[in-house]
Amino acid sequence: MTATDTQTSIPASGGPTPGTRISVAPMMAWTTREQRYFMRQITRSALLYTEMVTTGALIHGDRERFLAYHADEHPVALQLGGSDPATMGDCAAMAEDHGYDEVNINVGCPSDRVQNGTFGACLMGEPKRVADCVAAMKARVSIPVTVKTRIGIDHQDSYEFLHAFASAVAAAGADALIVHARKAWLSGLSPKENREIPPLDYARVHALKRDFPALPMSINGGFVDLDSAAAQLAHVDGVMIGREAYKNPYVMADVDRRFFNANAAVPSRRAIVEATRGFIADHLAAGGALKDVTRHMLGLYHGQPGGRAWRRVLSEQGHRKDADLNVLDAALARVEPTEAVA
What we know:
By secondary structure, the protein is α/β, with parallel strands linked by helices. Helices cover about 40% and strands about 10% of the residues. It has an 8-stranded parallel barrel, surrounded by 6 helices. Helix 4 (about 85-95) packs parallel to helix 6 and helix 15 (about 305-315) runs antiparallel to helix 16. It is globular. Residues about 1-15 and about 340 have low confidence and may be disordered.
């Protein structure tokens, strides 16, 4: 077991998930346990999401490995990929048993692999099936059950189509809807292109919230700073930040003070590194690799003097089998003169 295999159980709280005003999007291969621990040193309050975990992985695979997380990650949500209501209910119960604060249904990923499994964005075309999944999950758990979706798929991209989908999941008891404000092309575009080419349509999400005022709703897509996120809160209940939070993680450093607690301290970059050091040491001692953690830290000094040198040291030396905390110290030495110790 690695350091990230520790986990905690908490009582189910019911009601909105803590941290939903600002959250970090689930991203395959990016929002790993190591990344989430690192992000938690930057913001204590924003809601974090796992990578998508398929129901098949939980039913037939190494369940404990897929569900494990560090106790400091709360509030943390498990995102599920699946489409069979009974199985989704079983997996939601596993999520609650393991102490997750929320369980989310992926109805937004457009990759071929996900489509072949009959889940992800293609499920927008089957709102009844998604509603049945929501109802089955709600029957099994007391934690919030939420849905992350797009504004449309392929040529099914009218507002009426989106409204009908939202109506179905709301009627089934969904606790919140997270809407990526782009449609998805299920063929013709890669997952990366689907994150960039379809135009953003924030106004459509705003209209949906007006039509469903009682349904908590977050918006996702294209947010690169906290000012633009704050502006969205005049229209929706929450904002989910994805790629920017990953490539430039320090953008999240002021989240707690601005959105959750005016008295919260804003951590320095150095303080964030130091707060992650013990986790890295435990991870290495348990047989993990330095790069498992440091690959998520590459953007911490984005735009700062020495930032390129920081990335270069971690990238070139962090992948070595014998890489240890000395590599982190060497990288920090390239930027430490620009940072005051917190």
